[in-house]
Amino acid sequence: MLEKMTPWDYQHVRLALGHGSGFDSPGFRNLRVQLNRLTFEVQLMLKSKDLTLESLYLNVKDFEEMYALTELVVDIDESLMLWRSVHIKVIERTIGGTVEGTQGTPVEVVRNLRDRSIMNELRRVRADLTDRANRELVVDG
Q: For 94, which of 10, 31, 35, 87 could close a Cys bridge (C-beta 3.0–4.6 Å)?
């Protein structure tokens, strides 16, 4: 709906929002709490099996369910990043990209949150595996 609203019409809606924002809505707050719980539980499960993410990814056949769960977290993480990206575009479309949002937060700050991961280890392990592959799997010539 916001995408179809004129920038001027949105200014009236914005007044009603006060200092609230989508990131502070009860639904989004609950989502953040649940995502924190999920990533904590994944980390506990890995620890209970004496696994690191790297060892999990190197031994997928031995831990297929755990692998599937971690990849679901990656899917959720990517979906959240895509939602944030769309949210930024809606913000830019309605109020502009160089102003302050409903909480007085510059749009640039919100834009910088776009690619924040819910579980950084899942991103980092991919770089670690690539480095490992470059060291161990490089074939000369």
A: 10
**Global confidence as pTM:** 0.79
Give CA–CA dist 125/129, Å, rounded: 6
Q: How far, in Å, CA of 91 to CA of 88, rounded?
A: 5
In angstroms, the CA 116 to CA 50 distance is: 27
The whole domain housing 59 covers 21-136
Where would I find the H helices in the chain? 7-17, 26-48, 53-58, 64-94, 107-112, 120-136
Q: Mean pLDDT in the chain?
A: 87
In the chain, how many domains are there?
Answer: 1
